[in-house]
């Protein structure tokens, strides 16, 4: 490799278990050489003891594909991300001590697969183009888009059923209204092939009750989360494109929610008192027999009289739970 002239586009390294290594010194040297050869695809299949990826690999900014087996991902403190990386496959992988709460920028990442990995909850990434996420180890996932995607129909095979099957053990999930719009490119089913049985905490951010796609997506997720305990919804200010009549009619004419038998706590933030918002609250109260607390916070832009009317309305709604305590924070 030292004598090789020119770039090395792809490098595959297999370290079999039959080879007893006292150290990975030679492997580290190969990685150093690769970091100077504009490598684009790196695949390390290590069946020996765990290999700690050296810092020089994190200088390979032209990487497009990174597949690692039985390695330790321990980037230097100054590492910010791989600007061109499109495909990550990590198996039997451990996150190092340097990660902490660092968010890595992976602006071109489209595929992320994690299998048998440790400490993946410390693996925080910013990946706006991500299309495939598959992991049985992820327990907390947050997906937020900074702005709407104009043509969500062009997002390949991204739907709620696929996402649910790829994240079977998720416990806490945060999603925003913009991403719900992406998922709406394919019609939301009444039942998902795989219910989110492990999901305990669900949060919707930048949610608009005046958007039918978002309302249908939220109700689909609630229907398919039988063990959900906590729900938090932060509403965004509705624009001129909000169709309040359409979403209100949908919420009134459909038995769109089954009993949320485990739901205990709900928090609704920044509501404006629109009819679909109130109908959504009423729906939750009607179908939550174990509800203990519902906290409602009106938007700061709502005038005092409207705030008072919102409080009066929600306090009069019937409740499936005799223990449900309504807290209205005016």
From TrEMBL:
<dbReference type="InterPro" id="IPR006566">
    <property type="entry name" value="FBD"/>
</dbReference>
<feature type="domain" description="FBD">
    <location>
        <begin position="260"/>
        <end position="329"/>
    </location>
</feature>
<protein>
    <submittedName>
        <fullName>Putative FBD domain, Leucine-rich repeat domain, L domain-like protein</fullName>
    </submittedName>
</protein>
<dbReference type="InterPro" id="IPR032675">
    <property type="entry name" value="LRR_dom_sf"/>
</dbReference>
<dbReference type="InterPro" id="IPR055357">
    <property type="entry name" value="LRR_At1g61320_AtMIF1"/>
</dbReference>
<dbReference type="Pfam" id="PF23622">
    <property type="entry name" value="LRR_At1g61320_AtMIF1"/>
</dbReference>
